[in-house]
Structures are given as structure tokens and as C-alpha cells.
Amino acid sequence: MARIHEVIKSGITLSKEFKSIPFPDLIEASSKYKVLKFQSLGQDNELFLQLTKSANNFIHFANRTKQRFQGDRPNDVGKRIEEVFVQELKKTELTPLLLPKSGYPDMKITDQRGNITYLESKAVSKGWDSTFRTFYYSNSSKIMSDGRHLLIAWKIEEEKDKYWKVEGWKLCDLFQLKIKTKLEFNASNRDLYQTGVILAESNEPK
Question: With CB atoms 3.0 to 4.6 Å apart as the test, which of 3, 44, 72, 74 could cross-link to 123 if both were Cys?
């Protein structure tokens, strides 16, 4: 029992110390693969031009056709935007691939040179300077190579109940990102509602 207490205390102490972890270090430590710095004015210039052109075309098309995205939450809207944006990327010389399952990153892009870029897509409904946590990283199962790690954020505004307009975007290089960590203790329904934990329950029909 004393050993368990020491492990818990150590975890809490470490979580308080890890307040500014360079994202490249986090990725390399958890996946063994390197995060490469994006060089928009160097070898990644063509990739940069195609990504920004696709983002602008997406916005222009949405405005021209008055396209709106339905969703209860920004995350739901973001998923729909992501699916449409991938189709826009397919019109370029890039080869985008939506990655299965949830979690970082959302897609993998291969450019004409065969270089890999991992791209996260986010819908932002609050101000750009909001302190609300919106970016999460839990494991490296979708990262299979060295590559650039970018994030494209879509500014969305709810025009009427559950219908959202895309108003703008920002493209970010996660090579520069500093990550915070927050220790979380959790349990599932299966953990909670089992014999030995339940004290009493209603007589529900079987």
C-alpha cells in the first residue's frame, strides 16, 4: 500500500513539473519519430502554397454558396469541415489521407517529394486568445514516420441554432508549440457500476 501511495505522489509531482514541454520532444519520446520544422520559405514552399490555396478556396466556396455546417458542438462542426477540406486538398498535387479513429493527428499528407506532413484540423468558436483547453495529445499510435506537424484552425460562428459559418483560418507549425500536462484519474461505467462498488439500486424491469 505504501508503494502505491508513493507512485501516486510521484505522478502528481511530475504533472506539476511538466508545464512547458516542447511538442517535438513529446512526439519523439512517445513515438520515436522526429517532428521536422516546417520551412515555408524553403523546401516546403510548394506544400505551403498548396495548403494555403486550398484553405482560401474552401472559404471562398463556402461564402459563395452560403454553405453552413450543422453540429451541436464545435467538435462536430470541425469533423464536417475536415471531411470537406480533404476533398479540396485532393484537387492539388498533395495526397491527403484521413486517419481512422479519433485523436491526434487527423490526417496525413504526402507531397510531391514523398515527404510526410501530419495535419490536425480544429474548429475554433471562441476567441483566438482564449485560455480554454482545445488541443489534446494522448498517444502516438497514428504517427508512423518523421514528418512536419501542422494544425489548421477554422474560425466558426453560429449564425442560427446549430448552423455554423466558417469565417477564417490559421495555419500553425507545431514545432514551436509548448505543451502542458494535467494528471487525470478516471473510471469507466464498467469500473463504477459493478458488484463491490454498488451499495443499492432500483428494481428496474429485466
Answer: 74
CA pair distance 162, 84, nearest whole angstrom: 18
Q: What is the CATH number of domain 20-183?
A: 3.40.600
Question: How far is 136 from 30, CA to CA, in rounded Å?
Answer: 14
Q: What is the pLDDT of residues 156-179, one digit of tens each?
A: 999 888 899 999 999 999 999 998
Q: Where are the domains of the chain?
A: 20-183
Beta strands 35-36 and 147-160 are parallel
The answer to whether residues 122 and 152 touch, using CB atoms and an 8 Å cutoff, is yes
Alpha-carbon dihedral sign for residues 128, 15, 197, 195 = positive
Helix axes 74-89, 45-64, angle to 10 degrees: 120
3-state secondary structure at position 92: coil
Question: Sign of the C-alpha dihedral, residues 10, 25, 178, 85?
Answer: negative
How many residues can be counted in the chain?
Answer: 206
Q: What is the pLDDT of residues 33-79, one digit of tens each?
A: 999 999 988 999 999 999 999 999 999 999 899 999 999 888 899 99
- pTM, whole model, 2 decimals? 0.85
